[in-house]
Amino acid sequence: MKVVIDFGYTKMGLTIIDATVEPENERSISLLRKLGFKREIELRDNLIYFYLNRNSFEDSREVI
């Protein structure tokens, strides 16, 4: 998954990647948190919004 995120930032020029998740999907929420995504807000239809900005991802790569 980190390879896909890296591709988005380096090859596609993205500055932020976001995801929406149903609150019941604990595995996806756990994965997003492990990847460094931050929880933002709860949206309509009971969805949770997560985001990862490029700087945060690059900082986490330096630690690994």
TL;DR of this structure?
The chain is α+β, with helices and mostly antiparallel strands and 64 residues long. 44% of the residues lie in helices and 30% in strands. It has helices spanning 2-10, 26-34, 54-63, and strands at residues 16-21, 38-43, 47-53.
Characterization of the model:
The protein is of the alpha+beta class and 64 residues long. It has a single domain (2-63), classed as Gcn5-related N-acetyltransferase (GNAT) (Aminopeptidase, 3-Layer(aba) Sandwich). The chain is built from 3 helices and 3 strands, in the order H-E-H-E-E-H. It has helices at residues 2-10, 26-34, 54-63, and strands at 16-21, 38-43, 47-53. A hairpin with a 3-residue loop joins strand 2 (38-43) and strand 3.
Oligomer: single chain
Distance between the termini: 15 Å
Number of strands: 3
Number of DSSP helices? 3
CATH topology: Aminopeptidase
CATH architecture group name: 3-Layer(aba) Sandwich
Q: Count up the domains.
A: 1
What is the H-and-E element order? HEHEEH
